[in-house]
Amino acid sequence: MTSKIQFGLAVALLVSSGIQAQIPYAHPMAATTKGIVVTCQPLAAQMGVEVLRNGGNAADAYVATTLGEYVTAYGYTSLSGPLNLLYYDRNTNHSYYLNAGLNTVADPTGKFDPNNPVPGKSYVIGGAGAGLAALNKRFGRWPLSKVVQPAADLARTGFAISPVYAWTIQTRQPLFTKSAEWNAIFVPGGKPIAAGQTLIQTQLADTLTNFGKLGPDYLFKGRFASDLVQTVQANGGKLTLHDLANYKVYWAEPLSTNYRGFEVQSGSYRSYGGLLLLSGLKAIEHDATLADTHFSQDEGKFEEVLRTFLFSLEQATATYINFDKRIDKLQDQEALLSGSVPQSIWDSVKNPKLLAPWSQAAGHDSCDTLVIDHDGNIVASNHTINSFQWGDYGLMNDGVSLNSAAIQTGNAGPGERGLDPLMPVLIFQNGKPWAAAGFFDGSLETAGLEVLLNLMDYGMNPSDAIFTPRFGAPTGFNPVAIPLDPRFPPAWATDFAKKGIALQQPKNPDGSINMHAYVDTGDAMVIRIDSETGMHYGSPSEVLQEAVAAEE
User: Is the pTM value of this prediction over 0.85?
Assistant: First the structure.
């Protein structure tokens, strides 16, 4: 374990000033003593940095960046989705947790049935807009209208879409033939927008502008809300204006635990993701020799980390399925962490007679946005559409893509806040901010545990913590199927097959390992804070290397 940044090879990085800078890391990473933004889309990152340059703080930059994501994202996040975040206020040296998650509708007949899918019932109330406004009101320097404007302007003037964006449109188009609004935006005149062509979203620009002027009431009580009810009901849903007007954002203390001299904070209220992550850390803390050899190089350590995750996931899944109300109260969650749960997980990990359990992971298309300003205020956040790109049906309302996230609310009753797996993270050492992190995609839960071990136990820099070979979340049972980075030794698959675990690496037609294939081992964003030098180092996930910008 170390608090020092380890350096790798030098690479060229395009920082926000447009200047090529050489910094000693194995992968693209921003480095600055000032503000930094790490997110999923470069245009959104630039929006956030411009806010910092012009006097805004971390809260202002975060709101601008996230709204920029809603404009530039290819369907993986939306103003209609949930949003959870941690905010560290430098002046008070205190962290705050904000939950703007998913609410079900009050009418019990509006519950989504996957065996009889009704498009309108797949939508549940996402609080992203309310969450952004709440953060702006409590901690922002700028008025909401000012931080909204860059995203609204970009939606109105348009931007050239990437090849990935164009491919996503073509892939999802056959599923959305009944969505006139989606096709009007992304398939104008019956022809999908191609890479390099300009995407203009006039309705979204109007919605954002009105949100900036009128605040969250526009989304939850005003014209947008009325249109949303009409859209959802026209597609068989039971949403009402009363459901929207009753939506609330929750502020709470973060869930926190000590791990090998670090204080690790994550989501608390209605978030089992934080409990899953911190339970796993507390369990594996029993191994005092973990840092001796990295788990990607030692089969025994790999098995230990994998089993720790699987038994932690089993525990968290029970909380989710049973809709355990202990997750509402911080003291109850802390009691679980300080009580018998980590020891029970560790006992299971070390018991060779216990086969590894299988529990379904709950990750989905999403994004993390991390911001630190030059004063030291920090935002770590997850935001998402909580369904596949543009939802399952391509439903739109006034330019906003509607989620199909009803199934993600689990056993929440009518009109209740669902539980979620989101896990924004802040890490402190000796009372000072040490790192901010977020995790997303289908294997967000495994990414959380592995990347944090890489940071805290193995002393890796943010880039290496993300890029070092990792495993993904379970994709099947009997045997337990685990996606595995192709850089792991192929022989391990044979050994683990005897233990009821199928390690699945991508293969070429001839049966050899495909070293270039994408494997979902989860994505991550990390900002590392070196208190001795005042430097901030930011790295995005391996598929989004360009989406990081530093204030110059």
Answer: yes
